[in-house]
Amino acid sequence: MRNEDKISSNIDWITVGFYSLFVLLGWFNIFAVVYDPEAAASQSMFDFSMNAGKQLMWICTAVVLIIMILVIDFKFYATFAYVIYGLVILLLIVTMIFAKEINGSRSWLDIGFTRIQPAEFAKFATALALAKYMSPVNVKFEYLETKLVTAFILALPCVFILLQNETGSTLVFSAFVLVLYREGLSGVILFIGVLSALLLVLTLIYDKFIIVYVIGALAFVIILYLIQAASNSTRKKMLWRNIFVVMLVAGVCSGVVFGVDFFVNKVLQEHQRNRVMVLIDQELDPKGVGYHVRQSKIAIGSGEFWGKGFLEGTQTKFDFVPEQSTDFIFCTIGEEHGWFGSTLLIGLYVAFMLRLVFLAERQKDKFARIYGYSVACLIFIHFMVNIGMTIGVFPVIGIPLPFFSYGGSSLWSFTILLFIFLKLDAHRGEVLVH
Amino acid sequence: MNSIQRKVIQFVFIFVGLVYVGRLFVLQILDSSYKIEAEINAVEKIIDYPNRGLIYDRKGKLLVFNTPVFDIMVILREFKVTDTLEFCDKFGITPDSLKGIVADLRKDRGYSRNKPMPLFKQLSNEDFGKIQNFLSDYQGLYVQARSVRSYPHKSLANALGYIGEISKTSIEKQTNGYYRQGDYIGISGLEQYYEEQLRGQRGVRFVMKDVRGVQKGHYRSGEYDTTAIAGENLVSTIDLELQQYGELLMQHKIGSIVAIEPSTGEILAFVSAPSYDPSLLSGRLYSKNYGRIQADPLKPLFNRPLMAQYPPGSIFKIAQALTGMQLGVINEHTRFSCDKSLVNCHDHPSPTDLRGSIQWSCNPYYFLTFKKIINQDLSTNKFKDTEMGFDLWRTNIMSMGFGSKIEIDLPNVKGGNIPSNKYYDKIYGDLHWKFSTIYSLGIGQGEISIIPIQMANFAAMIANRGYFYTPHLVRSIGEEKRTIDRFKIKHQTTIHPKYFKPVIDGMEQVVQAGTAAWTRSRDSLVICGKTGTAENPHGDDHSVFIAFAPKDNPKIAIAVFVENAGFGAMTAAPIAMLILHKYLKREPNKYMEDYVINKDLTGKYGSYKK
Fold first, then answer.
1. Chain B closest CA to A43's CA: distance in Å?
2. A342 contacts B38? CB cut-off 8 A
3. What is the reported pTM?
4. CATH topology for B67-151?
């Protein structure tokens, strides 16, 4: 066991600083959301009957968690990675069975004094298991076996979270694709992923046959170009191979388009389809599904350059924006602190994530590096999707802004996620390098 | 290890951040529509209605005041009743009528579950007191205080007028954009004429509201708010006591009484009969009552002192006498025989001088006087001479306030008619008419028409010996008792004051020993008057009387007009006498008072059409 002095000198205080800043800013903004100017005298940030007061309580308990994480031996996390993973999977199954249905999902578990959302904790557990599995030197991503096991580790929690009807939380696991990319996953897969997303959006906007025709036309032009190029070259053998690849890609793309069309119209449930459609056409039904996005954009847009000032926002404070303490907390920043404040916050998050990448890269241990990338990428996905939905570039997917949004489960899970990494980072010098 | 993968990941992080910052730049800075939408969302403009000004009579008695009424508003989203029967019992309604009220609310165009809607409208103080204690038992019930016009009497309705919701056309016609739909505005009478003073200035508050429409304090700490300024009080020239007495005397009759203080032009009494109780057109039952009053064949809403046009009859002889003397065609000693071959007359001593002609209301005297006025031998052409004489006559007559609108402080005044030579030119052709065409004007018949307020003003002008102040109903406005300048302008007639003496002497004799002698009282008060009987082709003649008193330094001038009441002496004269006595605090003739009050002419109005 390490004593506290050692920890305080080795821990990355810059990251701790980012963490504290986000948590405090989050707390202030949650207060701004619930602030009622008519009852201002009786309102306090420390009132535990209000969200701001409750968040303070969550912050305090998070500090206790931090101390516990830092006190536990750093080798514990690698050693018990699978155990933790297993326990969380078990918890997910239990939740799925026993949880009461809230807003169509069975993801909240009542533990007496409060409710927790086990799906939140699946993130760090999966990160630990993934890092543990891939840490031995002999496990290389080129092997099919590695790919299959990795896919299994990632897919297992996804399945149970999906079964809880928490599509948003499942989406977060796509963060691990970036981690795997860092660890040797082919860039082509990443490219295909982005391409698929692009095709998805195009399919939603345009008729599927038009897209397929365009793909066909593009492929035809490229093949003509290849033939033209080959006539001036001696390597005729490569021509057939290239033409085959182009036709294959075009075929796959067309398949994706039809697949997406089928998926959206036949597989997705009504509310999910609406969320996606609202993203494409935001004026669609402004009082219904589009209401969230519309009100969110009004709140942010009305902030202008400097914002309306702390506690001066009207849209968020007076409940025009739904879920404003949790998923739509960024609206408060946008409305009260304007473009200036929003840019500053986005800058802080980007700097924070780059710092995490820097920390991950300086690990000598593969376990700590993979885990570190997982932390950075999970935070990135939350950041991208959460802010993206408030400004209308992502569908409304109910996931929180890390450290910032109101809620115990989310704050706890991100705190655990981050501080395990900081604990590992603090002991990076003690790792035996193979 | 600085792999390409690391760089790609770092690039992705920065790229997404930059895209978002750019997207926010568009939302927050380039596109200003969101700011407007935010204000529409969260800022509500609330209008504070000031109290409308009160109206007092000349002695300080209240004529019009405001009574608070209470609307019980309900926000249906918050409104929960567990025991409907108990609720209905407490609020004194039946469950069916409650259902009906709520169903009506839902039909309302502005229906919202989140906004206050009126559940019970315009409860009186008393009714409100009964339910006040129960309000706190239920969520979602709110009280909104408003006020309606109230009257501590049943008089003067036609002069006071009423207020009502502004019409769509009035909203469209207004130039300064002050009024909005649902606003109350003076629709007639003083309420309309003094609307701007009475209404005050509306206040505006901008309050923030949340998504449920609940108010959340001042927008920008009230920096755009304006406070409501209460309407100004009016002090009327009316003497309520005299007004009520006049209305009593006019019961069961159609007609007008206008009494004026000659030295100021202040109207002391303004009776339009029949009238209605002004409180009927205030508050909850406005529309119902309005329909009923409007349907009354006797037309209580018709403001007779200002709008009823009649031939003046014999009172016009005074104007002729004055004009004749002013033009030098007669003098106070001029004598004419009562030659009934010229025009019909009643039996009286003959011949008469000017005083006697007024005392006995001699028709041939004025036939001849008018002839002398018209044909003065100013031109050798008989027609030209007629026209010249006629123009001189008309100028003098019009200077006495006839033939044009009296600019009283009430809306909808008629001007009456003194025909012009153009009028006759049009009918008979240029210079193709002469005295024989127009002779009936001489005794106040024919094409001449005047309105009661002009008669009263005429009486005041005689009392003043040649000038008048525009008759008006408001003495002063507001706290600082502002007066109205145009009512202080002395309107001088073309008649020299010296010509009034013989005329007024004649008027004194009318009451002492002439056509109205029977109304003479034993009192020392010297009253000057003139009877008139306006011929009415549709039925019995109208009874007319003008008078002023005392003879020297007159305090009150009056004109009384009673439709279908026969000779001027029969009805109009005693009414005028009683009012003069009342105002000058003399003993009224009880017998005459009973006679007038009990005189019921409603039988004559059975086929009344106007």
1. 14
2. no
3. 0.64
4. Ribosomal Protein L30; Chain: A, (3.30.1390)
